[in-house]
Amino acid sequence: MRDRIEQPVAYAVVSWLSAEQGGRRSGPPTAPVYMATAVFPLGGERETQPGWPATADKLSVLLQETPGTSDGGRIYKVDFLVRDLARPFLHPGAKMLVTEGPKVVASAVIREVRPENSAG
């Protein structure tokens, strides 16, 4: 288990779904670095791919909460196990769904993308 993300690839505002909305029964994660899967909706997938986003190609994502909030959402450092696969989708304003298995547990909006080889 990782205890922090030293050099995030991006920062995002993450909004966790409540249990009633289909999110995590235990609420937002409490681990220092939360590891899950993520998908970037590109538009139209829900209509054309049965079972989307459960059937989508997913990336392994790492999230670490930072102090502060933005418009009711929490700000997180974002990293991926394979950054090169994620980079084409990363830009300010990009939407990302965080999933645990087939269910969506949070939505995120990329706020800032760090240049390659930049420090924290």
General description of the model:
The protein has about 120 residues and is mainly beta. It has a single domain (about 10-115), classed as Beta Barrel (Elongation Factor Tu (Ef-tu), domain 3). It contains two helices and six strands. It has helices at about 45-50, 85, and strands at about 10-15, 35-40, 60-70, 75-80, 95-100, 105-115. The protein is globular and about 40 Å long.
List its traits.
mainly beta, 6 strands, Elongation Factor Tu (Ef-tu), domain 3, 120 residues, six-stranded antiparallel beta barrel, 2 helices
CATH topology: Elongation Factor Tu (Ef-tu), domain 3
Neighbour order of strands in the largest sheet: 1-4-3-2-5-6
Largest sheet: 6 strands, antiparallel, barrel
Distance between the termini: 19 Å
By helix and strand content, what is the structural category?
A: mainly beta
* Tally of individual domains: 1
- Which range does the strand content fall in? 35-45%
Mean pLDDT: 85
Strand/helix succession: EEHEEHEE
Query: Can you tell me the residue ranges where pLDDT is under 50 for at least 5 consecutive residues?
Result: none
- What count of helical segments does DSSP give? 2
Q: Count the strands?
A: 6
Shape designation: globular
CATH architecture: Beta Barrel
Which CATH C-level class is it?
Mainly Beta
Computed over alpha carbons, the radius of gyration is 14 Å
Name given to the CATH homologous superfamily: Translation factors
Helix content: under 10%
